[in-house]
Amino acid sequence: MTGGLDLATSPAPPPPRSSGQRTLLITIALILGLIGAIAAGYYFAMRPVILKVAVGPANSDDVKVVQTLTQAFARGYVRLKPIQTEGAVASADALAKGNADLAIIRGDLDVPKDAQAVAILRKNVVVIWAPSGKGRGRKSGAKITKIVQLAGHRIAVFGRTEANVNLLKVILQQYGVDPGKVDIVQYPTTEVAEAIRSRKADAYLAAGPVNSRITAEAIAVSAKEAGEPTFLSIDLADAIAQNHPAYEAAEIPAGAFSGSPDRPDDEVKTISFNHYIVARKGLSDTKVATLTRQLFAARQQLMAEFPFAVKIETPDTDKDAVIPAHPGAAAYVDGEEKTFLDKYSDYIWWVLMAASATGSLGAWFAGYLKRDERTTNSHLRERLFDMIAQARHSDSAEELDQLQSEADAILRDTLHCFEHGAIDQSGLIAFNIVLEQFHRAVSDRKLLMSTMAQNLQRASAQFRAAGTL
Predict the structure, then answer these.
(1) Which of 83, 68, 116, 51 is nearest to 291 (CA)?
(2) What's the CA gap between 46 and 35, in Å, rounded?
(3) CB atoms < 10 A from the CB of 121, how many?
(4) Which of 133, 213, 381, 389 gives a 20 to 30 Å CA spacing to 92?
(5) Is 241 helix (H, G, I), strand (E, B) or coil?
(6) C-alpha dihedral over 109, 115, 118, 119, to 10 degrees?
(7) In the predicted model, is pLDDT for residue 461 greater than 90?
(8) Contact criterion met (CB below 8 Å) for 257 and 216
(9) Which of 123, 94, 42 is nearest to 309 (CA)?
(10) Is the pLDDT of residue 17 over 60?
(11) What number of other Cβ atoms are within 10 A of residue 160's Cβ?
(12) Structural contact between residues 160 and 192, judged by C-beta atoms closer than 8 angstroms
């Protein structure tokens, strides 16, 4: 008897399901990993962004506006973190050094090279006035009604920033007045009333929004202490704007500084300059676009505390703007802000590519895990070929039965491989052909052995019959 599978002594092989389970677990792990990657990407894309904004000086309207915006943005995508500075110059310096993402600056200062406009926070106008000389204890003197008459006089400039002094010098030079022949003194806004009451100047300059509370109070005190003021018109405002792009020609409307009579009683020509919210050039377009949208959405909320907030304007998006608009702010202004798909289409495409690659990798890995099953099944099929030859030369019915049992076990393993995808339909058909050949070989051999046994019995019976005769 030739060798074969002894089913009586050998344990039945366990069904080859472990590889299928491994494949399923690995597939689930890959899917969960992909979902985790998408969730992590969404979290990092949508988590709040905190932008540091440089603003000053302390207790100024700019600081109060930024503090109000910080509260308004508390639940927004973009949130603010104020960094208090000594003033607009220090704020611009903080932006230039990279210590802040945003800054509140004046447009007539040295603007950092990488600063780009997000919004015009407000427009400031220059107000120059001279007392009429009719107030209490005021000595009569030459009445100042024109800019050119300021030569030889003392002018009080309100505000701690040197920018206001430089602004006055620009105006004087445009009128041919030597700034060196004008006595310029500077007072902080907290000392406005005291400076006016002490009669320390012949004329005054203030810069701020048309509806500035500080300017209105200063004019009211001046009217009370020295009579109704005379507002000096800057008739050369267009020329100043032409020579200094940071300034624009403007008008102070009649009655802007309410009182009795209206102050002024007619429009006064002057110059204006802008206060900007600027951002670093390298700041993300998406962040700045969202910031701009949130800013204009909060404008109504600001108006309750800061009336000038209604004047918040979008930046100039022209290429020749004094301060170029940030691309993110320009996208919002021009209605070209990107949608979710526009922003993240590249990421979505990469995720889809990653999903496709993951699927391909999973398929390859699953095939790799089934490689052993395919190899084993291939060996079993070769074993079946050997069993065909063995069956054709077998002389034992018991051996043929054992070969048949072994073929049944091979069939069972092959069907498991087919169910797990280790072999395909064509492989199963090829195996079936070999199995049919084996069964035919066993059947033919058993038939031959049966015929030979019958012939042997007949011959033996004839031989015994002949011996008795």
Answers:
(1) 51
(2) 16
(3) 26
(4) 213
(5) helix
(6) 10
(7) no
(8) yes
(9) 123
(10) no
(11) 16
(12) no
- Give the CA distances from residue 167 to residues 11, 173, 217, 261, 386, in Å, rounded to whole numbers and listed in that order: 102, 10, 22, 29, 106
Structure tokens given for 90: 């220090």
For 301, the 3-state DSSP assignment is: helix
Of the candidates 224, 194, 188, the residue with the CA atom closest to the CA atom of residue 206: 188
Nearest-CA neighbor of 215 among 273, 257, 268, 162? 257
The DSSP 8-state label assigned to residue 87 in this structure reads: S
DSSP 180: G
pLDDT of residue 445: 82
Query: What CA–CA distance (Å, rounded) separates 295 from 308?
Result: 14
- End-to-end CA distance of the chain, in Å? 40
* Amino acid, single-letter form, for residue 400: L
Place of tokens 């506006």: 65
Domains defined along the chain, listed by start:
18-32+371-468 (no CATH), 115-277 (3.40.190.10)
Let me know how long the chain is.
469
d(CA 133, CA 202): 9
Q: Calculate mean pLDDT across residues 409-438.
A: 80
In whole angstroms, what is the distance from residue 66 CA to residue 57 CA?
A: 12
Cα–Cα nearest to 147, from 228, 208, 237? 237
The two structure tokens encoding residue 77: 């995508």
Q: What is the pLDDT of residues 217-236, one digit of tens each?
A: 899 888 888 888 999 999 99
Q: Where does 115-251 have alpha helices with state H?
A: 162-174, 192-197, 213-226, 237-243
- Residue 127: its pLDDT value, please? 96
Please give the DSSP secondary-structure letter assigned to residue 233: P
Residues in contact with 20: Cβ distance below 8 Å, sequence separation at least 6, in sequence order? 420
- pLDDT for position 310: 66
d(CA 77, CA 286): 11
* Strand 49-55 relative to strand 154-158, pairing: unpaired
Please report where in the chains the tokens 């949208």 appear, as a residue.
293
Quick check: pTM over 0.90? no
CA angle at 63 for the pair 57 and 66, rounded to the nearest 5°: 150
Q: What is the helix, strand, coil percentage profile of the chain, to 5?
A: 55, 15, 30
